[in-house]
Write a structure and sequence with these properties.
By secondary structure, this protein is mainly alpha-helical. It has a single domain, classed as Arp2/3 complex 21 kDa subunit ARPC3 (Orthogonal Bundle), CATH 1.10.1760.20. 80% of the residues lie in helices and 4% in strands. The protein has 8 helices and 2 strands. It has a two-stranded antiparallel ribbon with strand order 1-2. A hairpin with a 2-residue loop joins β1 and β2. α2 packs across α6, α2 runs antiparallel to α7 and α6 packs antiparallel against α7. The longest helix has 40 residues. The mean pLDDT is 87.
Length: 202
């Protein structure tokens, strides 16, 4: 193993540990990962997954996303983040799979966009938007697919009203989360990538 390979491996291990700790803290410390908005929660944990995917790559982003998903799955049984959590997030297809795909899509999108156009900040922002919308659309889409009747009953609405309600969430919470990801992810990921490059050169 060369010095550069050793430095890269050490960097990856250290930052994976840091990102894992952040994910766990965001899940269990109030307002760090979920901001309550009425009966729902505005999620900001996805930003940590996106940053990991940009800085370390799509595979590591998927791993951190999977850790978030498993934490969400466990928490749905023990300490739910919102009233809907015990209904929907006890299904790993909803709690785990979309979180993994955040890392994969944001990471691969960033790699692709950097090849097309060498503007890191723009590539980071667009990748963050894609990763964030992946989570929103998949979670809400799977809720509609698997739980539209109990979900509608829980909120005392007719099931025919559910799809417009979910689309409204995409256009409000979803876009707000995507905007936050597009703004914050480059501010954090850019200096971390610079540190990584410096470590690889040293």
């Amino acid at each position: 193993m060369t010095i550069n390979q050793h430095n890269n491996r050490t960097y990856r291990i250290v930052f994976m540990g840091i990102f894992t700790a952040i994910i766990i803290m965001q899940n269990f410390v109030p307002f760090l990962g979920y901001i309550p908005v009425g009966p729902l929660s505005l999620t900001v944990i996805h930003i940590t997954v996106i940053i990991t995917a940009i800085v370390l790559g799509p595979v590591d982003g998927a791993i951190i996303g999977g850790i978030w998903g498993m934490t969400t799955f466990i928490r749905a049984f023990t300490f739910p983040s919102s009233p809907i959590a015990p209904i929907v997030f006890t299904n790993p297809l909803i709690s785990v799979v979309p979180r993994i795909l955040i890392g994969l899509i944001a990471g691969y999108a960033f790699q692709l966009l950097r090849r097309i156009k060498r503007f890191d900040l723009a590539a980071m922002s667009l990748s963050a938007v894609l990763g964030s919308l992946t989570n929103t659309i998949l979670v809400l889409g799977l809720i509609y697919l698997f739980y539209r009747v109990p979900y509608a009953n829980y909120y005392h609405m007719d099931v025919t009203q559910l799809l417009p309600a979910l689309l409204f969430i995409v256009c409000t919470n979803g876009l707000a989360e995507a905007f936050a990801a597009a703004l914050i992810s480059p501010l954090v990921a850019k200096p971390l990538m610079k540190v990584r490059r410096n470590k690889e050169r040293s």
